[in-house]
Amino acid sequence: MAKQIELLLLDTIENLGIVGDVVKVKPGYARNYLLPHGLAEPPTQEKIQELAARRAEVEAELKKLRGEQEALLEKFADYELTLERSANEQGMLFGGVSQHDISEALKADGLAIEDRHVRIGEKINRLDTYHIPIQLAKDLKTEIKLWVVSDKPLEEETEEGAEGEGGAEAVEAGAEAPAEQAAAE
């Protein structure tokens, strides 16, 4: 198993730590990414104390961000989103719906959300209703209901409905006519 190196983070790195954290990472990650980009350095007591004030600022920022995320999560309760897309007669979309499309529609509704918060595995390629997971943080998760509908009404349904109604009326009128003729004789 590879030996791990202890480093002091000079900047907040998602899924690793915040400013002033002493973390253990693999040598390749340290050598190829953290050290060359100036995101970390070997820990010293002086440097840890130097970063203490900056760490307090970042913690306050993260606390504020957490509050905003929790408020945003409450807005997603029973939230439904409808997207109109072009589709063929079988309900297959021309192009599909991606997580970017969903996040842009949410932004248009006034919800500040990034693409990475929308968690769909693949593009949506069919007209249907979907439950889309939204994850703002590891423990802040919810789902929204997404309706993907056609941008034009299906002509087949309207034609069949008109024929079915007219046909039923014709049958009823035809049934009444012989009954009336029989009664007249």
Key phrases:
alpha+beta, 185 residues, Ribosomal Protein L9, domain 1, elongated, three-stranded antiparallel sheet, disordered C terminus, Ribosomal Protein L9, domain 2, three-stranded mixed sheet
* Element string (H = helix, E = strand): EEHEHHEEHEEEH
Count up the domains.
2
Put simply, the count of helices is 5
Number of strands: 8
Q: What fraction strand?
A: 25-35%
Please state the second-level CATH architecture of the largest domain.
Roll
Low-confidence stretches: 157-185
Q: Quick check: average pLDDT?
A: 82
Percentage of residues assigned to helices: 40-55%
Largest sheet: 3 strands, antiparallel
CATH topology of the largest domain: Ribosomal Protein L9, domain 2
Strands in their spatial order, largest beta sheet: 2-1-3
CATH superfamily of the largest domain: Ribosomal protein L9, C-terminal domain
- Calculate the terminal CA-CA distance, rounded to whole Å: 103 Å
Gross morphology is elongated
Structural class: alpha+beta
How does this model look, in words?
The protein has 185 residues and is an alpha+beta fold. The protein has two domains: 5-68, Ribosomal protein L9, N-terminal domain (Ribosomal Protein L9, domain 1), CATH 3.40.5.10; 76-150, Ribosomal Protein L9, domain 2, CATH 3.10.430.100. It is built from five helices and eight strands. It has helices at 27-34, 45-50, 52-75, 99-108, 155-184, and strands at 5-9, 22-25, 40-41, 80-85, 92-97, 124-126, 128-137, 140-150. It has a three-stranded antiparallel sheet. A three-stranded mixed sheet has the order 4-8-7. It has a two-stranded antiparallel ribbon with strand order 5-6. Strand 7 (128-137) and strand 8 form a beta hairpin. The longest helix has 30 residues, at 155-184. The termini are far apart. Residues 157-185 have low confidence and may be disordered.
